[in-house]
Design a protein that fits this description.
This protein has helices at about 40-50, 55-60, 65-75, 105-125, and strands at about 50-55, 85-90, 95-100. With about 130 residues, the protein is of the alpha+beta class. Strands 1-3-2 form a three-stranded antiparallel sheet, with no helix packed on it.
Length: about 130
Amino acid sequence: MQTNPENDKGRHPGQAPAPMQTGDDPTVIRRPPRPFTPRQQRAIDALLQGPVQTCRLPRIAGVNNGPDLVATLREKLGLEIPCPMHKVSDRDGNRVEAGEYSLTAADRSKINAFMLALAADLRESGA
């Protein structure tokens, strides 16, 4: 819908804008709008088993851009998925920093809640 004077919609000079309804409330568990993609599911399965090195996640999940996949999971599900850096040796013996994705206890709780909700939706839909 186009905003114009005839339909009297939109912002009016001198008025405060309407409050946004997109603020994140950390106590609210967001449900994904649809089941996970196979790539997201493989990443979640790997993270549920324990920390995953940043260089290994793309291979495990079957993606080229691991950080983008993690960003999508963070946004879609409201997860933290911290990625602390650790000093490691590369194949040439140089000391470098490498990241390692992991789930917090809250992340695990949210994922379990999502999985239960998705299972309930499947049961209700008769699939």
